[in-house]
Amino acid sequence: MKKKGLIILGLTICLCSPSFAFAATIKDLEMYDTKAYMNGDLVAALKKYELDNGVFPTTEQGLAALRTKPIAEPIPSNWRGTYLQKKPLDAWGNPYNYVNDKDVGHLRSFGPDGIESKDDIQLNFFRPKRDISSPPPSFKPGTEPDGFRDIRWGIDISSLKGMGYVRNEKIILYSTLAPHPEHKIYIKENDDLIMDGIELDKIEYKFWKDKFYEVHIYVKGFENAKKLKEVVFNRFGEGTSSKRTKNWEFSYNWRGTITRMSLAYNKDSSVGGFIIYSNKIKSEMFDQAVKEKLKVM
User: pLDDT tens for residues 141-161?
Assistant: First the structure.
């Protein structure tokens, strides 16, 4: 009888032990997934929000600010969400606790029991210190454009009439990125090639994923380029001079929250170029190029 008892006890231990090990493994995986999400997608979304708006969401705005633009002060000036596609929940289906303490953010998962205890997962992250010597936005107040003429950034090519396709072109964002994204170039039928009395050579409209994001305006000859420079300075304010090679007579840049511009004249080609583009779409283009680069590494 004693032997049978020992056999039964041994069998019980053999049957139970794997389940205990399996339960421990599941908990470990859930803890790991939660930590990985906090350190990865969640912090990345918060830092992208801060990069766009200059601050993290307030404690009161919470993580909901990553999915819906806050209506409570301070209302973000350059919200480009959504920064997260899904509501952020930990591995146990509970919302994360978020606190903004000035330049330090605090994230916490209350773990499998859902209450504050020793098994909580905590993470602190910091607002980066940026170079205070970088130039401020250079548009004259109230003049930053949201497109060109009557065509706003992001409008789909299918909704525009009289646009003639010219060619596809690869965009060289950075020489180390591959493959490079492509955009389509169009010209507008019967386009107005006079700007404040200046005769323009041509205007090219550029679309990425069929969304309008950039325009190139060309002039021929130094006199026309000088006049264009005067018009642009008068309308948008004096741009920031940028250094180029000796082949360039002048080169200026304008930096805003919605739009960036550049104006330059090349002495060798006797061509002046005025470029206006969308910050948001150019940023999306760069992000996709980085993702494509990672796929081929």
Answer: 889 999 999 999 999 999 999
The 10s digit of each residue's pLDDT in 57-70 is 999 999 999 999 99
Domain boundaries along the sequence of the chain:
20-126, 147-295
| pTM of the complete model beyond 0.85 | no
> What are the Cα distances from residue 120, in Å, to 27, 29, 42, 126, 138?
13, 15, 17, 20, 46
CATH topology for the 20-126 domain? Glycoprotein, Type 4 Pilin (3.30.700)
